[in-house]
Specification:
Layout: H1 3-13, H2 19-29, H3 32-37, H4 40-44, H5 50-59, H6 63-75, E1 79-82, E2 101-106, E3 115-119, H7 126-139, E4 145-148, H8 154-164, E5 169-172, H9 186-194, E6 198-201, H10 213-223, E7 227-230, H11 238-248, E8 252-255, H12 266-273, E9 278-279, H13 283-290, H14 304-307, H15 313-322, E10 328-329, H16 330-337, H17 341-353, E11 357-360, E12 364-367
Parallel strand pairs: 3-4, 3-7, 4-5, 5-6, 7-8, 8-9
Antiparallel strand pairs: 1-2, 2-6, 10-12, 11-12
Helix pairs in contact: 1-6, 7-8, 10-11
């Protein structure tokens, strides 16, 4: 049995250790096994861990649950992506509460160059249906990956339109991969897998689609995407939660306007009115704002937002180093830059805040 995977799953089961604490531990120790084998005195002295969490780690003994999950993973060919895995959605790493471990069924690249989330009401209008289908169709030439939540309504329309237009689509679930919710979308889930899509979740098998899981799930939808598009929604609901999360992650948010008398457009109009989303009327507008129509652009590694950011001399030095290869260790950055460690730290912080680069476990860095 894969011992490192055993410890990775076990880390998600430890009481009092959430995804934020897990990230702190992995950054400190490098891997999950080292976390469990560390001395309690060392664990409790880590900022953000403390005595109670250290004790939870050292007294954890429910490894049989992790063993059962590995059997499920192997039986159904599930791909586990730990937070330090190269297959892990790197956009999520910019989110402070990124999941510790993701379970993936399917073969699509979760680090595709262009990813958007499409969300909206379960009870859509014909207007919402038409806009969703046309938007996805018009994005087909740019090979944009479509992310949504497999729910009734706009979610399902987005997945179906992606399949119809030969685009990869990711369904982010609020339960384990041993079932599909809603059950009526069992066929849609099969189609997603058949046509180069993915079912993705942070929940292990036998986790039911409980109500509180859905807003938690929404952070993955928002976090792994370059932009979130809200097509139709009321003034309350999961779509507004996703939009708020995307804003919190410094992601672009778009909303499709509707009649002021239409309850299904009330949430979208609110997002636009309160400057929490940009008004969106068609795919061309989206592509222009995201910079995805630009021809003969430089390396895809360079994030679009970098074009609009005035970099300091120190920041440019670090960017040039990061362009040399996919990930670079902090020691290599310090050595190659010729800058003081404090100057490097300041430049890195600015670049992270501007979403130009991101930090990975093990003191590694890469361009977004």
């Amino acid at each position: 049995m894969n011992s490192e995977l055993l410890y990775q799953i076990a880390l998600t089961l430890v009481p009092n250790i959430g995804c934020v604490q897990a990230k702190i531990l992995i950054e400190h120790f490098g891997d999950a096994e080292s976390v469990f084998k560390a001395k309690e005195s060392k664990l409790k002295n880590i900022e953000g861990i403390g005595e109670i969490r250290a004790r939870s780690i050292k007294t954890f003994s429910d490894f049989s649950l992790a063993e059962d999950e590995i059997k499920f993973i192997e039986k159904y060919k599930i791909k586990p992506f730990f937070i330090s895995s190269k297959e892990y959605p790197r956009r999520l790493l910019n989110c402070y509460d990124s999941p510790t471990l993701l379970f993936c069924k399917g073969d699509a690249d979760l680090n595709a160059s262009k990813i958007i989330a499409i969300v909206g009401t379960r009870n859509h209008s014909e207007y919402g249906k038409h806009f969703t289908e046309k938007l996805v169709k018009d994005l087909a030439e740019e090979n944009v990956m479509i992310v949504s939540g497999l729910a009734f309504g706009i979610d399902a329309l987005a997945h179906k339109a992606a399949i119809k237009n030969d685009l990869s689509t990711v369904a982010v679930l609020a339960h384990g991969l041993d079932e599909v919710y809603p059950r009526e979308h069992h066929g849609l889930a099969k189609d997603i897998l058949k046509y180069n899509g993915v079912l993705l979740t942070e929940y292990r098998s036998k986790t039911k689609p409980d109500k509180h899981n859905f807003p938690i799930r929404n952070r993955i939808v928002a976090g792994m995407s370059d932009a979130t598009i809200v097509i139709e929604t009321g003034i309350k609901g999961g779509s507004l939660i996703t939009a708020e999360l995307a804003n919190g992650y410094n992601k672009d948010v778009f909303a499709v306007p509707g009649k002021v008398t239409d309850a299904k457009s009330e949430g979208c109009n609110y997002l636009i009115k309160s400057n929490k989303a940009m008004l969106l009327t068609d795919a061309k507008e989206l592509l222009e704002i995201m910079g995805w129509e630009e021809k003969n652009r430089k390396s895809e590694v360079r994030h679009q937002k970098e074009i609009f950011i005035e970099l300091t001399k120190d920041e440019k030095v670090i960017i040039d180093i990061l362009k040399e290869k996919e990930t670079v260790h902090i020691d290599e950055i310090n050595q190659k830059s010729g800058l003081s460690s404090s100057a490097v730290a300041a430049a890195i912080l600015n670049l992270e805040l501007q979403n130009v680069m991101l930090s990975l476990p093990g003191k590694l860095y890469q361009l977004t």
